[in-house]
Write a structure and sequence with these properties.
The strands form two sheets. The protein has a six-stranded mixed sheet with strand order 1-6-7-8-10-9, with helices on one face. The protein is globular, with a radius of gyration of 18 Å. With 266 residues, it is α/β, with parallel strands linked by helices. It has a single domain (21-147, 204-265), classed as 4-Layer Sandwich (Purple Acid Phosphatase, chain A, domain 2). Helices cover 30% and strands 23% of the residues.
Amino acid sequence: MRSEDRVKSGAVVLPQSSILDPRSSAMSHTLFISDLHLGAGHPRSLAAFQRFIATLAPQAEALYILGDLFEYWAGDDHRHDPFHARVINALHELAARGIKIYLMHGNRDLLMGAELAQAAGATLLADPTLLDLYGAPTLLSHGDKLCTGDIEYQKFRAQVHSPEFQKNFLAQPLAARKAYIEQLRQQSTSAKQNKDSAIMDVNDDAVAALLREYRYPRLIHGHTHRPDRHEHVVDGHRCERWVLSDWDQQASALRCDAQGCAAVSF
């Protein structure tokens, strides 16, 4: 991991961001997950999700899902799909037990909206979101914006995040949206086979710029499917970066409390 040692002069201004404080609950830890890719074609991931919701999740004071909860999401009317309804109902039941649930968009489910959040008893988060996690400034992101080496993907990302694109896309019938997304998924799978794996990971300069912009917090993200803990030295500040697991390979969560963070597999 390359360290960054450049010095920035002048004051650092904290950007506008959602500031959340999970310490209002009497419980002692918070869980982070991402890249579950839940879909009818992934029964093992669904079984792991059900175990997680029944065992680990109720012990936490808050659950943050940092993108790609679903294999894909074609719009909030997609919530009526029987499979999606099972997932949403499980989250709603967890929320009814007093567990705070936060959802962040991923590249596969960037069209999650207010109707889904309400049905799941969850709160939608901006990407990135900064929170005070037991006294430690912690920045949350899905992580795909940090993969700046993949220029083709970043162009596509800019297109689909455009409000005009999303408005026009959501105006189409659900069946047409699902067919379009399926076509995109097939193209993406084919394109990945010809890409250098390095460009599909985060770029060190992009990570350093984000940490600098938010005044050197801890960073937690998903997307890359390379779970690990990294350290970055940015302008003399040592920052840790946690990468969440994708559940296609290993179902796990990141558990954070006042003592720090650790991955929990199940």
